[in-house]
Amino acid sequence: MGGGLDHFQWTTILREVSALTAYHWVYRDRVKPWLVADLLILNPQMPRSLASCYEVTGRCLDLLAETYGTAGKSQRLAHRIRSQLASARIEDIFQSGLHEFITAFLADNGKVAAAIAEQYLV
Question: Which of 55, 78, 103, 115 can bridge 73 by disulfide, Cβ–Cβ 3.0-4.6 Å?
Fold first, then answer.
């Protein structure tokens, strides 16, 4: 990892999510794939990270549960994902495969969306 094309692609990802400046503030290092992934997946202080998004999703679902008087599958799934992200390490994600991690995350995210629809919209 680390050729010119790699650097360009990872830098482009950061630019596309308006995170290049944040990356340099947090890591104070040249662009490295595992640090980009760490910022965008696990860093709860990055508003667009998966960890941050699931923190907000969990809170919103908790408010809905409070309003409706009952928690359900969507809350359980969202809290499970939030816990997994909170305890994950970027080294482990890269070792088992970034693509595989993202694929599994997308599948789990789809389950949360389906549970929300079933619980609140149907």
Answer: 115
